[in-house]
Amino acid sequence: MTSHNMTWISYPSKSQPFTSQEEIEAVIASQNIISRFMHCYIAFFIPTGLIAGICILIIFIKNHLQNKRASLDLLLLHFTISNIIMIFLSFTVIPRPDYLTVTHLACSVLSFFFNFGYFSSHYVLILTLLTLLLERFPQWTAPCKATQRPILCVVLVLTCTFCLSLAEAVLVGTDNYQLQAHCQLDPLFAWPAYEMVKFTFGFGIPSLLQILCFTALWAKEGPAGAPALQQHIRAHPAVYVTSVTIFICRLFYNVMILFRTTLKLQRSIGTTRNELVMNIAEIVLFCESCASLVIILFLYKPCKDEVLKVIQKCRRETRANNHLEIAETAPTHQNGSQ
User: Which of 10, 117, 241, 247 could form a disulfide with 85 if both were Cys (CB 3.0 to 4.6 A apart)?
Assistant: First the structure.
């Protein structure tokens, strides 16, 4: 149980007074870099991601009311809500290069909701990939019947997500709930098992399932009459582009999570450089949530069609206004000439 005693751990930038000039300069440089990353994220990614997420929700609700429901709408609606939750929780990076100061209990609660969105978004994306795979190979009757009930699939994902998030909240630690601490959404003071479970169930297994789906899609020929592979991918670019984006961003983040676990097992707090890269990885993870929503808005066909309709409507209104202005100014010139 020695690994469960995390009272010794602290951030390198908060650990002790620095004596040498090099250490002070390293801390200042690290804080400047993370501050710039944070400001760029807040200025560009958060507004873009939230606007894209709200637009997707409006489009899905409108299509639902008009009975224009596509087969993937429910799954991507779940994915959108999960990413919006993560974007709202990403406001905890605003104090950077400092950290949010709350009790251990409050930090555990924040971590629970963060993990809920984190696990939920990845697992529902796997379910969406599986649905598209079975759309191409309808002869796999048993899995096809399961994916034809998307509400049941979503409930199953939510149940698994809740259980994993609850387990992670326990692994944050069950002691010292009343003490104040510097809080990240993946708390530094969590037990090493926290990061191991998160890597295994939040990245390792989902990424393996992603790879299997892509391998089956590329390696197996479609049945007679099925569209060509390129045509199938062009029909659903949003899901495949989002899958690649999630894999790349979460790979970087999870590598840093594992590295932090290694430091904990060695009873080392690391260096300010390690702290900097972990902070950058966290912001990259949040950027991925924003980027995924933008990808869905502009590449998922029902959303893209609505966006094009709005753009065309705005153009028509602009042209109509221009014609009205020209029509109003023409008689004025004629009267003036008389």
Answer: 117
pLDDT digits (tens, 9 = 90+) for 128-149: 998 888 877 766 555 555 556 7
User: Quick one: 45-218+229-309 is in which CATH superfamily?
Assistant: Rhodopsin 7-helix transmembrane proteins (1.20.1070.10)
pLDDT digits (tens, 9 = 90+) for 284-306: 999 999 999 999 999 998 898 88
Half-sphere exposure in the Cβ direction for 129 (13 Å, CA): 24
What is the rounded distance in angstroms from the CA atom of residue 337 to the CA atom of residue 131? 70
Cα 264 to Cα 109, 114, 192, 230, distances in angstroms: 22, 22, 7, 46
- Whether the full predicted model's pTM is greater than 0.85, yes or no, is yes
Q: 109, 106, 50, 107: which is closest to 81 by C-alpha?
A: 50
So where are the chain's domains?
45-218+229-309
Measure CA of the first residue to CA of the last residue in the chain; give whole Å.
Answer: 98
- Alpha-carbon span 79 to 131, nearest angstrom: 14
